[in-house]
Amino acid sequence: MKESGIQWIGQIPSAWTVCRLKDVAKLYTGNSIKDEEKQDYMDPADAIPYIATKDVDNVLYDTNYDNGLYVKYDDTSFRTADAGCTLMCIEGGSAGKKKTLLTRKVAFVNKLCCFMPVNIDERFLFYYLCSPNFEDEFKKNMTGLIGGVSVSVLRTFKFVMPDKQQQKRIVNYLDIKCHEIDEVIRNARSSIAEYRKLRISHITEVVTKGFYSSDEYKISNYDWIGKFPAAWKEIKIKWLLCERKERSETGTEEPLSMSQKYGLIPSKEMDTIPNMASSFVGAKVVHKGDLVFNKLKAHLGVFAVSQYDGLVSPDYAVYYSTGRANMDYLEYLFKTPQYICEFQKKSSGVGEGLTRLYTEDLFSIYCALPELYEQERLTDYLAKKVGEIDDLIKKKEEAISEMELYKKSVIYECITGKRGVS
User: Fold this and answer.
1) Ranges assigned E (strand) in 273-422
2) Is the pTM of this model over 0.85?
3) Is there a contact between 308 and 264 (Cβ–Cβ < 8 Å)?
4) How many angstroms separate the CA atoms of 320 and 317, rounded?
5) Tens digits of residue pLDDT in 390-410
């Protein structure tokens, strides 16, 4: 082994060489596809596929070419990537936002498409760009408001490589090893998807049917309610909730943020710290037990019962119970597919991503509810059952994280010569 002279790589085999990225690859940028150009050319005989960042999953040979986006062969406004090229997002969220754990998007393309090599195996370059050591160096060099690394800076990045024969041995080994790891990850993600289906199915069954037998039902006039227990009552949400309009006078209370995964939590505990307002004077006050809606994302299920006292954005809606409903029960009920669909219908605004579920529209929706004591009984039952499913999901997610870290370590060890590959 010898010192590479590169802090983030350390020692490399003595036969390996150190150079710059520009010495082994041709680097150039492409163009984003415009809305009016999307799906203009659907005939593969007259077009080549356009690759967007959403089509990339950082898995070799797993790039999605069938996204419905095509560009004409003779359209000179786009760069083309020949088969065997590596694509890497160098700016914005898909480049890996500064100071977060988000991974850059890297793709290996095995056919001509729209959107690097000199004495180097193209797959070796792909794995090198996927390695955690390269990712760390990339993030250190990110600049600008959006966050990115320019091509001119990328060209100066140090690169280590063995001879072409060893490169092929390494990538062949990594192809097999990474495929095995990716298969484990895929199976775990598939299990998580099934657990989530089971979770929502179980919640829906309990909050819409309770524990009643099939002959104790009546039919609602409202499609989203459908069949419900005869002992339950149909009631407008208006009679279950009151809007809390209290505003902070000092702005000194705990700032809270809505997470689709964790619910309403202190902003400081978010995975990605949001941009904080310079002052929270005038922010909406939330009390523990309030049901808080992100009005812009209510149709995506982004609402939760707060476990904290604190403050939220004025664009959120805060509700407290009139005494007729258990708030945890309502959260379960409102997150069923039937109510999410109804929230989507009731949301209004100027366009996609800008629609809001206003209080008067939420309050106009009917639901079927049992008596309060039974709501509490059903909520206790669901808390236990859903908690068991959530624990299974958490274990699978932890296993995925471990496998992803293991994959990164294998790639790092191989492309820096720290793991022997024969």
Assistant:
1) 284-286, 291-294, 303-305, 310-312, 316-321, 366-369
2) no
3) yes
4) 10
5) 999 999 999 999 999 999 999
